[in-house]
Amino acid sequence: MNNRSQGERDAVTVEIMYAVVTASLAALLAFGAVAGPVFLFELRHPARGLLLLAGSAVAVLAFVGRTAHVLWRFSYAGGEGRRQPSQPGRTRPDS
Questions:
Q1: Got the DSSP string for 11-75?
Q2: Which three-class secondary structure state does DSSP give residue 1?
Q3: Among 35, 43, 66, 79, fewest CB within 10 Å belongs to which?
Q4: Is the pLDDT of residue 47 over 50?
Q5: Which of 31, 73, 38 is nearest to 56 (CA)?
Q6: CA distance 81 to 59
Q7: 8 A C-beta contact, residue 54 and residue 30
Q8: Which residues 6+ apart lie within 8 Å of 20 measured at CB?
């Protein structure tokens, strides 16, 4: 049986979608930064292929890195760190 509330499940879903969307934008920007000259200039075959390959590799790394960063940060923000203090006005654990 799943002991997560609907709100917690929704938060996870939203965070995953945020991670995928921002990672896609990061990958697009990374690809454009590396492989952009291919589309702006007439380059010969070896340089063109190398830039496209490098741009693709950088885009994949950017996507994976951004996704991992967002989800890792979310996992550390969950649990005890997100709960309200038991007594209002007291935010330190030793209070």
A1: HHHHHHHHHHHHHHHHHHHHHHHHHHHHHHS---HHHHHHHHHHHHHHHHHHHHHHHHHHHHHHH
A2: coil
A3: 79
A4: yes
A5: 31
A6: 33
A7: no
A8: 67
pTM: 0.71
**73-76, Cβ contacts within 8 angstroms, sequence gap of 24 or more:** 74/12, 74/15, 74/19
* Token pair recorded at residue 12: 């996870």
Long-range contacts, stretch 43-49, CB < 8 angstroms, 24+ apart: none
- Distance, in Å, from the CA atom of 36 to the CA atom of 51, rounded to the nearest integer, reads 8
Interacting residues of 48 by C-beta distance below 8 A, sequence separation 6+: 38
